[in-house]
Design brief:
The chain has 94 residues and is mainly alpha-helical. The protein folds into two domains: 58 residues, Helicase, Ruva Protein, domain 3 (Orthogonal Bundle); 31 residues, no CATH class. It is built from four helices and four strands; from the N terminus they run ββαααββα. A two-stranded antiparallel ribbon has the order 1-2. A two-stranded antiparallel sheet has the order 3-4.
Length: 94
């Protein structure tokens, strides 16, 4: 089928729907069936819900980094724990 991709279950979705399934399927732990379920959930979801998800993803990509000291996620170069003046700099809790 031109322009379509055949999935392992034999179903063919075209264009942006298959693109969404493919991208969701690239997430760790998400197989083809789960990716398909998520895609169809998002297609049926209220637009406001999808917009909130989209905005949350964008805010994380734009504003979250790994702490330069301990490597945890943070909205600043140094996380709040490592930036605390009471913190013992020679000790890292694992």
């Amino acid at each position: 089928m031109p322009g379509g991709r055949v999935r392992h279950d034999g179903l063919v979705y075209e264009g942006v729907v298959q693109d969404l399934i493919d991208e969701l399927g690239r997430l760790p732990g998400v197989g083809p069936k789960s990716a398909q379920r998520m895609a169809f959930y998002l297609l049926a979801a209220d637009p406001a819900d999808v917009t909130r998800l989209q905005e949350a993803l964008q805010r994380v990509k734009d504003g979250v980094v790994f702490c330069a000291i301990c490597g945890t996620v943070s909205e600043k170069q140094t996380c709040r724990i490592c930036a605390d003046p009471r913190r013992e700099p020679r000790v890292v809790c694992v």
